[in-house]
Amino acid sequence: MKQLSLMIIFLFALAILTHAQNERKFVRQGNKYYGAALKDTTKIDSTLFNKAEIEYRKALDKKPTDPKWNFNLSNSLYKQMKFEESAEKFKEISELTTDKVEKSHALHNMGNSLLMNNKLDESIEAYKQALRNNPKDLETKYNLLYAMNLKKKQEEEQKKQDKDKDKNKDQDKDKDKDQNKDQDKKDQDQQKQDQQQQPQNKISKQNAEQMLQALENSEKKTQEKVKKVQALRAKSKQVEKDW
Prior knowledge:
Serine Threonine Protein Phosphatase 5, Tetratricopeptide repeat, 2 domains
């Protein structure tokens, strides 16, 4: 009975060992792909980093909380420029580990992922948290200063753009004012012209009335002459008739 128990324990231990070896096999294969991708410094071989990611995930399916394997997975995501995912994974690592140095490294890389994703405020906070856990980390200090300077430059650029927009608005307002002034001047000139033309129109009207009056007088004189001629003619005829 004791021999049977020992055999069961042996088989159980062998199964655990075989299981662990399979996990490590995935990690070793992932490290192999990752190392090969790093060799070519002229480009980022996303294909090999993706293969490394797949192998690390296989290992983590067996042991999800292993900090080193999670770290390797996060690095492979970062190298593929999957910055959103890598930031989340580094955050998980920082929350899982109790070791201050490991936590600092995870937060540092989280800051790098956020920085590459142009999330400056979040990256600055990550670097600060990393330094709280490891105040002597010079690389984190440098990255923190870099992120803060980058934020400052972006804010200055934004202020400049806002200032230019305000300047353009003021110029448009001045332009509108000038246009309004020009329009007012035109309106005033037109009003003056209208005022100058009004007396002329009155004179023209007076002239027209005078012309009409003259025509009427002329017509009266003409009618009088016609009447006289007709009277003379009538008289002549009458005389002739009498003859």
